[in-house]
Design goal:
Blueprint lengths: L41 E5 L3 E7 L8 E6 L2 E8 L21 E8 L10 E5 L2 E7 L16
Antiparallel strand pairs: 1-2, 2-7, 3-4, 4-5, 6-7
């Protein structure tokens, strides 16, 4: 059954927003509320010698994003906080606030041979662009042991 999407995901989201019992055992995602699973959308493009990744991070500044490479995993972390706004007479009273503060992260396996110096990163217009070279796993050379006798 298709429902019209007037107020959110569907018409009944805002009217019948009952708590889901499955959510009690999960860590609450404060950043963008129940829509947090739709963040950090990533496109990965493969080329002959490298991968290009574009990660959507709307609303973040370059200083709020961290990249870490450990054990072959590239982790992208983004964290932001909203300044505590006092009641401003010019802005009026808040009726609904959908912007949240918090953090999120996502990890990608890039291989043990890739180093921090190999990865090129650029952040423009809310999109983090990464260029990750392809590196083959180095196979140790075979050593032959001579048998005496």
């Amino acid at each position: 059954m298709l429902l019209p999407s007037l107020f959110g995901e569907n018409l009944l989201d805002d009217w019948f927003d009952f708590p889901d019992p499955r959510e009690y055992n999960q860590v609450e995602k404060k950043l963008y509320g129940r829509h947090a699973n739709r963040l950090m959308k990533t496109d990965v493009h493969e080329h002959d010698d490298h991968y290009e990744m574009d990660i959507d991070l709307p609303g973040f500044k370059k200083e709020e994003i961290q990249l870490q490479l450990e054990n072959g995993y590239l982790t992208v972390q983004a964290a932001k906080g909203l300044e505590s706004e006092e009641k401003d007479q010019k802005k009026g009273r808040i009726i609904r606030q959908e912007r949240y503060s918090g953090s999120m992260q996502r990890s990608f396996y890039v291989g043990d041979q890739v180093t921090e110096e190999d990865i090129k990163a650029k952040f423009e217009h809310g999109v983090l662009s990464l260029n990750i070279p392809k590196k083959e796993a180095q196979i140790p050379a075979k050593k032959t042991i001579m048998i005496e006798g």
